[in-house]
Every structure is written in C-alpha cells, then in structure tokens.
Amino acid sequence: MSEGWPYLLTGIVVGLVGGFSPGPITTLVIAQSLRYGIREGVKIAVAPILTDAPIAIIAIFVIGRLADAKGALGMIALLGAAFLTYLAYDSFTAPSSLNVATEEDDLNSLRKGALTNFVNPNPYLFWFTIGAPVVHEASTVSYWFVGMFLVGLYVCLVGGKITLAIVAGRGRVWLKGPAYTYVIRALGVALVLFAIKFTRDGLTYLDLL
Questions:
Q1: Which residues contact 202 (CB under 8 A, 6 or more apart)?
Q2: How far is 58 from 54, CA to CA, in rounded Å?
Q3: Following CA atoms 180, 183, 189, 191 in sequence, which dihedral angle do they give, to the nearest 10 degrees?
Q4: Three-class SS of 103-148
Q5: Is the separation of the CB atoms in 16 and 187 below 8 Å?
Q6: Is the Cβ–Cβ distance between 126 and 194 less than 8 Å?
C-alpha cells in the first residue's frame, strides 16, 4: 500500500491547486458566499463532483484504448506537463487578493456551479492530459491506488473551495491578507515539480530517456 502514496500526493496537490486557484468556479463560490451566505457558496463548491464524472469517464475510456500506444501516452504526458506548467505560472502570477464579482445574482447556486464547470475548458484539459493517464497508470497496479488518487483530488478540490466559501461568507477582509498569496505560490512550486515528473515520464514513453 505504501506504493500508493505518490498517487494520493498527486491528487492532493492537484486538488489543492484547483481548490484555491483563481478561476470562474472560485469567483462564483466567493460571490455567492458574499451575497447569500456560506450555504450557497458550498453548493457551488460541490458542483465539480457532478460535472467531472462524464468528462472523466470519457477521458479514461479513450486513454485506456491508447494503453498500448507508447507514443500517444508519451505525447499525452508531455501535454500534461505543459498544462501543469501553465497552472504553475497562473499560481505565480495570481493577484494578492481575489477579484470577486459583486453584481446582483439569482440563486440556483448548484445549477450555476455545474454549468460554469461544464463550460470551463480546464476540467477537460485536466482529465485528458493528467487525470486519465494517472488513473490508467494506477489501475495497472491496484484499483486501491485509483481510489487514493480520486479521494485526494476531490477532498482537496471541494474542501479548498468550501474553505473559500466559509472565509468569504464571514467577511471579505480575510481575503486581503498575504496568506492566500503564499499558499498559491507554494502550490505553484509543487506544480513545477510534478511537471518535471510528467516530462520525464513522457520522454520515457517516447524512448528518449
């Protein structure tokens, strides 16, 4: 079971980045929390669980069909490294405080969160370039490892956004401190390290290492 810790760690790091990084879902979580309270922000936070499932299933199916195509897996790994690098850059250049929408908005928070996530390209990029390859790799060893990756990913992804909902609901002033910036920068460094790993894996698949 100790071999599964890298998969859990991967899920945790990527989940934390997704949970705390600026983006459409994050902005909506904070806006709804500020306008209508923590409960509405939490509804937005759990939306990715609903919308990610079909995206993940399709991506895992496609990647599974490519299991014997080392060249394709190599290119996918390199794309994953590029996407992680992009996320790291986004973390390093994130503003010191979140730019929260303040215009009047209706409720139906869960529906809004689901629609926002469904039209967001990041879940598609993540599952086709990072999530599905990790799930495929883990499944060749043990399905327990797949579970560890998914648990780490969604506990941290949803938990991070719920944390922002709670903070926003209790007062916008808490978002102006330096702690948010430090967390995002630290996660950016972790993403760079994972990007290096994906680059190495991709070059190995392509027999370039």
A1: 73, 74, 75, 76, 77, 78, 80, 81
A2: 6
A3: -90
A4: CCCCCCHHHHHHHHHHCCHHHHHHHHHHHHHHHHHHHCCCHHHHHH
A5: yes
A6: no
**165, 33 in Cβ contact below 8 A?**
yes
Degrees to nearest 5, angle at CA 25 with 41 and 8: 95
Residue-wise pLDDT tens digits, 22-76: 777 888 888 888 777 888 889 999 988 888 888 888 887 877 676 555 777 788 7
Give dist(CA 166, CA 42) in Å, integer.
Answer: 8
- C-alpha distances out from residue 208 to 85, 133, 192, 204, Å: 20, 19, 21, 6
Q: E-assigned strands of 24-182?
A: none
Place of tokens 């992680």: 84
pTM of the predicted model, to two decimals?
A: 0.76
What tokens were used for 106?
């209706």
